[in-house]
TrEMBL record:
Transmembrane region(s): 126-152
Top-level taxon in the UniProt lineage: Eukaryota
Pfam families, per the entry: Tetraspanin
Keywords assigned by UniProt, alphabetized: Glycoprotein, Membrane, Signal, Transmembrane, Transmembrane helix
Signal peptide residues on this chain, from the entry's feature table: 1-19
Function: May be involved in cell proliferation and cell motility.
Predominant subcellular localization, coarse grouping: membrane
Membrane topology: Multi-pass membrane protein
Annotated localization: Membrane
Gene3D superfamilies: Tetraspanin (1.10.1450.10)
Entry's Gene Ontology cellular component terms: plasma membrane
The protein's name in its UniProt record: Tetraspanin-7
Amino acid sequence: YAMLLSLIFLIVLVAAVVGFVFRHEIKTNFESNLNLALRDYNVTADRHSEAVDTIQRTLHCCGVQNYSDWERTEYFTQRGIPQSCCKRQDDCLEEDLKNPSKAKLKVFVDGCFFLVTSLMESQMSVVAGISFGIACFQLIGIILACCLSQYITNNQYEMV
């Protein structure tokens, strides 16, 4: 049992170190995937488009770096900036969303990449605290399992 807990502890420790070391690659990967999701954005309900809409509505942001990222997409040429970027849903008309100067007044201007990464970084202390707590319980379990093993070995019980 102690060996199993030790193995799990080591796996969690390695995962934490890898996550810390490669955090910049994770950011770069997220940014490129968000750019791809914007490029391939469409009105049909696919997972990537729904994810972009959810991020934009929840975090009150638009595009990757800012709202003008939508101008380089095929969706913009057809329908303008998506409704999920609108500050107020009842105030966004499709004609306004096709005109970048009018749209600037009606949509969120901040990009989603910075908001998502800053939100993740702000929550990292909570994740680190929970992980540390779990690691402490695992270490206590390892120590208690070793003590129990030692106690059983020292008191050779008779087999019945």
